[in-house]
Amino acid sequence: MPRYPLIKSVLPHVIAVVIAAISMIFAQTAISAEKAYKNWDDVVSAAEGGTVNWFMWGGADNINSYVSDFVGSELKKRYGITLNRIGINDTAEAVNLVLGEKQAGNHENGSVDLIWINGGNFRSMKQGELLYCGYQNLLPNNRQVNWQDQSIANDFGLAVDGCEVPWNRAQFAFAYDSARTKNPPQSIPELIDWVKAHPGEFTYPAATDFNGSVFIRHVFYHAAGGVDALLGEFDQQKFDAVAPKAWAILNEMEPYLWREGKTYPNAIANLAQLFANREVALYFDYDPAIFGINVENGIFPESTRSYGLKDGTIGNTNYVAIPYNSPNKAAAMVTANFLLSFDAQFEKAKASIWGAAPAIDVSRLSDAQQAQFAGLPRNPAVVAPEALAKNALPELHPAWIDAIEKGWQENVAK
């Protein structure tokens, strides 16, 4: 009997078994990697003298200096770790690099050891199984993180699941020149009326800009009657019910915007320049520390003041994540742990450095450390983080954000 037909019929099954075996090997490799470090001492020992390629947005000089000069020097001094800060314009660049390496079969010697990440980029990496997870409990400074806080445990509505480490928090706030504007609007409804009463004195960046997109979401929340109606997975039926109301509000505002809404700033930096030039009366940013930095640099007037809205402003946590194929996981874990330390969080909170809100729960620190945080000077232009936090609104699931941004382009920008 000829043997070739038998081989032909059995071959697909053999291939399937081989593929399954290879998949099991990769799975076992991932599991063993999770168990490779019995305790923190093992991690530190493996990390000593290592290198961390940290891919992060590089658009702010003060943040770049903090990472390179402070974090980098401390890691070198304490652990012999060399930190390479690799500035990128968009986090998606790093995500795509890891994805490309996975597709090419590079599962152990990736180019990226750490990424500053959140939101849609985290979703992409989690769904693509591109993340190294399950190491948080090894980090000594993880005890200073309040994982019961849902805005930390969930990244834009997606469970962190041990795949990220928080290192910074931000919340949207408005700024105005108190010498020019006496009664700035205190809520989205007040803002809508204020814009119509002060033609040409307000605008916002296009949805392609992160801060512009956040502003549009505030209007969307208002149109929905509050964010609670939009939480969870994307719901097309809910979107279709709310979106026309939001587009109507924004279109009604358009003739009263700067340059009658015929053009929108392309980036938040353009809006900052308009505010500095007194072409618009209101400015906003997802990082309120920038208000003080711009005052100290002579860009904004000293009479600049900032505030949150009575109906709340959106806040989020941003994180660092380790790709699954990082060849320097131990050094990346040590870096993530240091970013959660009192020293790193306190340095970052200094107005002269960054002025960023801490990602750790300050109440979990020693009394002396809490006192140091409480004694930090804050530029008068910067609203107190605790005042903003009282009316913090959650971010939406990335699928909601995608739909809102696309809807704005189609129904408002055009």
TrEMBL record:
<dbReference type="Pfam" id="PF13416">
    <property type="entry name" value="SBP_bac_8"/>
</dbReference>
<dbReference type="InterPro" id="IPR027020">
    <property type="entry name" value="YnjB"/>
</dbReference>
<protein>
    <submittedName>
        <fullName>ABC transporter substrate-binding protein</fullName>
    </submittedName>
</protein>
<dbReference type="InterPro" id="IPR006059">
    <property type="entry name" value="SBP"/>
</dbReference>
